[in-house]
Specification:
This protein is mainly alpha-helical. It has one domain: AmiS/UreI transporter (Serine Threonine Protein Phosphatase 5, Tetratricopeptide repeat, Alpha Horseshoe), CATH 1.25.40. The chain has helices spanning about 5-20, 25-50, 55-60, 65-80, 85-105, 110-130, 140-165, 170-190, 195-205. Mean pLDDT is about 90; it is low at about 195-205 and about 210-215. It is found in: Cell membrane.
Length: about 220
């Protein structure tokens, strides 16, 4: 994933995290999802079209679609009022693919830090699946906090490091990254548990077209 594209992945995850936490209204987040989702679909298409069959280039671009279609799906649900089950089931597909992309980072690309990042995204998209497809409303605020924190930790920070030439990878940095993302999950779990009974149900509606279980 390019450093510029990764920066905007961080931005949209940050906004969507705030949306799940009832800080940003769903319709106010739709524009960012449309912009980044479109970018993550158009750019990899151009890259693949110009790859001249280079498998490594195609592999690197292919994962971008997983994010692009997720954000476009969020925008679609928000603007049309569609329910979130489709997005939820797509999210478990994304989570499974993210596990594979993480393995590829370790085995083929020698970048264990991004292997850890891909696996953290797998956990995040698994949470989207549980909230949207399985109706686990009590996890909505946990998911919101984890989305927000990963937007910073897996998007903005590594993107800025790549852009400034300070990014390093290897076993030791990967262990640090794993510890950071475990801490992010623990923090999300703690921060997301309090007010969950009421606010969690309302926030879940933002990714399901604005309707909570009580309204369906």
């Amino acid at each position: 994933m390019s450093s510029v594209g990764l920066l905007y992945v961080g931005a949209v995850l940050f906004i969507n995290g705030l949306m799940l936490l009832d800080v940003v209204p769903a319709r106010a987040a739709a524009a960012m999802n449309l912009f980044v989702g479109g970018m993550q679909v158009v750019f990899p298409t151009i890259i693949i079209a110009q790859a001249d069959g280079d498998a490594s280039v195609i592999l690197g671009a292919s994962g971008l679609y997983l994010f692009g279609f997720t954000y476009l799906y969020v925008a679609w649900n928000t603007l049309t009022g569609a329910s979130g089950e489709g997005l939820g089931w797509f999210s478990i597909f994304v989570a499974a693919c993210a596990v594979v992309y993480g393995i590829v980072q370790f085995t083929h690309l020698a970048d264990p830090v991004f292997g850890v990042i891909w696996w953290s995204w797998a956990v995040l998209w698994l949470l989207f699946f549980l909230v949207l497809a399985r109706g686990r409303d009590r996890l909505t605020r946990v998911t919101g906090w984890f989305t927000l924190l990963l937007g910073i930790g897996t998007g903005a920070v590594p993107a800025l490091m790549l852009l400034t030439g300070t990014y390093v990878t290897g076993a030791a940095p990967a262990l640090v990254a794993a510890a950071v993302f475990a801490a992010c999950f623990a923090a999300a779990w703690v921060l997301g548990r309090p007010r969950q009974q009421r606010s969690g149900r309302v926030a879940a509606g933002t990714m399901t077209g604005g309707r909570t279980d009580a309204e369906l």
